[in-house]
């Protein structure tokens, strides 16, 4: 090995910097237009009180081991039981993060000879799990139900004998648009397949009591859902809803479940309270919907752009450096907005990802869009 230590890594970072793709950790700065704390639960007094009460009754901060050793706590099991009831699934399994849950699911459940047909814009964690698994995989056009159907038919014609798995997000994290779940559920049934719906950005917000967009698919027998706890629920971790036999299979075969320290029992207690808050406090969803409508109207009036129809409002910029410059300027003016660049989004589609949460009010939203219009006009 010759040259300076870690020269390859230094060269890679230099290349990212030249392309305006270098990632950096930035502090929170200004009004929240960047987080996924959509319902404002992360700092909610009721959630803090529930966690404090759990500590008082002796719930530990750490698990002390994997779930298969001494790390399995009563709070984990209570959360899974309550989540299965809340989301209407056979069982629920709690993971430390949505990323870990997706990797476990896709690397473990689809078998050799199966086919995973996934939306082209599916989350990076699903890609990671698919790559680690044994099934074949195929990406299809974003939100094109016919493309999923055609891919499975072509696979069967070519001799595919296994089970097809359809992988989508119900609400896409970078575009804010919805998947055609009803059509995809019919395709899954038609081909004896499994529909896997990542509800990360819909959980807590959409569907009855915030149960997600897949809550309307009660008649779909082969349905798996993933509900992250670190976004609208305000905490961390993820819950996979699935039939009992598949939950048992993950416990026995998912390596990142078997060999990871269990999530904090204290956090599990907090998630239980967050689920109760979804049912008890529907006004949070109503308030968020009103703010989302206002933000969409401001986006159209100030920037001439169509809104996504959700709390995620992408503002396309295209050029990486310009997206960074506009985001930096907005933070200087008191609005925490972040630039999203490739490879998180496709090449040439750098954007500002504006997130509407209960951490801002009407005045801040209107003021932000006024200043954003000026910044976009001047940063060319």
In short:
The chain is of the alpha/beta class and 380 residues long. 43% of the residues lie in helices and 15% in strands.
Architecture overview:
With 380 residues, the protein is α/β, with parallel strands linked by helices. The protein is 43% helix and 15% strand. The strands form three sheets. A seven-stranded mixed β-sheet has the order 2-8-7-6-5-3-4, sandwiched between helices. It has a three-stranded antiparallel β-sheet with strand order 9-12-11, with helices on one face. The protein is globular. It starts with 6 loop residues before the first helix and ends with a helix.
Radius of gyration: 22 Å
Portion of residues within helices: 40-55%
Give the termini separation: 44 Å
Reported CATH architecture of the largest domain: 3-Layer(aba) Sandwich
Give the percentage of residues in beta strands.
15-25%
Query: How would you describe the shape?
Result: globular
**What is the fold-level CATH name, i.e. the topology of the largest domain?**
Aspartate Aminotransferase, domain 2
User: Any idea what the CATH superfamily of the largest domain is called?
Assistant: Type I PLP-dependent aspartate aminotransferase-like (Major domain)
Sheet with the most strands: spatial strand order: 2-8-7-6-5-3-4
Attribute tags:
380 residues; alpha/beta; Aspartate Aminotransferase, domain 1; Aspartate Aminotransferase, domain 2; 2 domains; seven-stranded mixed β-sheet; three-stranded antiparallel β-sheet; 43% helix; globular
